[in-house]
Amino acid sequence: METLEKIRKAYTEYVLENGKQPTSVFQFVKKLKISEADFYNDYASFDAIEADVWLTFFNEAKATVEADETYLGYSVREKLLAFYYTWIELLKSQRSFVVYSFGRLREESKGQGGPTAGLSRFKPKSQVLNPFKDAFFDYIRDLLAEGRESREVEPRPFVTDRYPDAFWMQTLYLLDFWVRDVSKNFEKTDTAIEKAVNTAFDLIGRSPLDTLFDFAKFIYQNK
Questions:
Q1: DSSP of 170-186, one letter per residue?
Q2: Which of 54, 74, 124, 207 has a Cα at 20 to 30 A from 130?
């Protein structure tokens, strides 16, 4: 087993057994029978291990859907649906860890109004989700660019640039929903994914208001 994988496995087991992070790197690596230098070659801190786990979930979900030939022929809406379904399926394999880690991040947000004010103010003190967030933003920006080309996404002044943030909040919402879901085989989460994605694309797609705006613009330019 590679050192990196060994560290991740040991860390995951520790937090699930103890409900908190190890107290020191020294004690942690001593039990693993590796040096501190070996630990720091891979991770700068315990938070960095968690960040790597979250990023790995995203990368594996993205790689899985993109390896499917049918995915290439999907609409942008269908691609995001496929990603979310695959991502949640991967999270199931380590649900206990996800519940622990996300719960810890929610607790960090309490002092900043996180859980009491909703996910819109979800701002943990640690940077655990940042690598995952950055990778997701790259992914969703590519999807939105593709959507503009296929006319699934309507460019709107002052709003279009905020679309990635909205989809990130949607991702946090779906994660929070799944963590709290007690339905059989998480069936309600599947429904939440479908409704959230369809609603989002209905909102950012072309609507009668866009047609009205274009007509008003035409009248103004040709009066």
A1: HHHHHHHHHHH--SGGG
A2: 74
- Are residue 1 and residue 96 in the same domain, yes or no? no
**Whole-angstrom Cα distance, residue 21 to residue 7?**
13
Tell me the average pLDDT of the chain.
88
DSSP 127: -
- 96 vs 13, 55, 99, 177, CA distance in Å? 10, 17, 5, 15
Mark whether 105 and 127 lie in a shared domain: yes
Tokens of 183: 């339905």
User: Do 108 and 23 belong together in one domain?
Assistant: no
Range of the domain at 19: 1-43
Read off the pLDDT of residues 95-147 as tens digits, 9 standing for 90 and up: 999 999 999 998 887 755 444 345 656 777 789 999 999 999 999 999 999 99
